[in-house]
Fold this sequence. Notes:
- With 271 residues, the chain is an alpha/beta fold.
- It has a single domain, classed as 3-Layer(aba) Sandwich (Rossmann fold), CATH 3.40.50.
- The chain is 41% helix and 15% strand.
- The chain has a seven-stranded mixed β-sheet with strand order 1-3-2-4-5-6-7, with helices on both faces.
- α3 links the parallel β4 and β5.
- Pfam families: Abhydrolase_1.
- Keywords: Hydrolase.
- Belongs to the AB hydrolase superfamily.
- This is Alpha/beta hydrolase.
Amino acid sequence: MAQDILKRNNVNVSGKGTQPMLFAHGFGCDQNMWRYVAPAFEEDYKLILFDYVGSGQSDVTAYNPQRYNELTGYAQDILDICEALQLNNIIFVGHSVSSMIGILAAIQQPQRFEKLIMIGPSPRYINDQPDYIGGFERADIDELLDLMDHNFIGWANTLAPAIMGTPDRPGLGQELTQSFCSTDPVIMQQFARATLLSDNRQDLHKLQTPSLILQCANDIIAPLAVGEFMHSHLPHSTLRYMDATGHCPHMSAPTETVTLMNEYLLRTQPV
């Protein structure tokens, strides 16, 4: 059973340490996106990288539309991996929607998680005036989803460079575009709906695990107001503003990402 899960999620374990550091990729990505950050922690941690079912080199035949219709299905992927590898005291590192997926997993099994590090998290992408700014109007989201349904390649070529937010380095946007396009469009469409229509604001106060929020400048997916909302509603959270722009600093600014992660981990080490 454990081997089935490790194969299903294309789980890879490395590193010389004993404390697990579990990296969870964002929407339309895979574990390869961590290649600029994860090696910095090889000496001190046990690194676990994986692909959600339907992403990367996962077993696509294990995809269940009912299970993955909501983010809780992806949180179960994480908990399955934790059970298969008997992981505890985990440092969870999640990008984008995986931040919320990690929160859902840690609420369900708090005993497994020591800290959560969240890069560009958002509990709700749609504005809820007058009290909440998520970055998008509902009509914007509907338009994005409609474009995705009718012109998947055009959607990927338009959205990926804007998400990356590094026009001076077009290669990064092209890599994200290719990642989007290499995933089954039907699975991507369902994951997009589960992500962009989710509302996990009411879950934030339930998280008792200490957390770090890394907030980029000029992030169209998770703007500044969202990071500040997360910080104000998450108990035991730390908010750090990054010089990096865009939504993927683990790819565009890995040195800054690693530095801020290390500063947080050192500062919050048990005495």
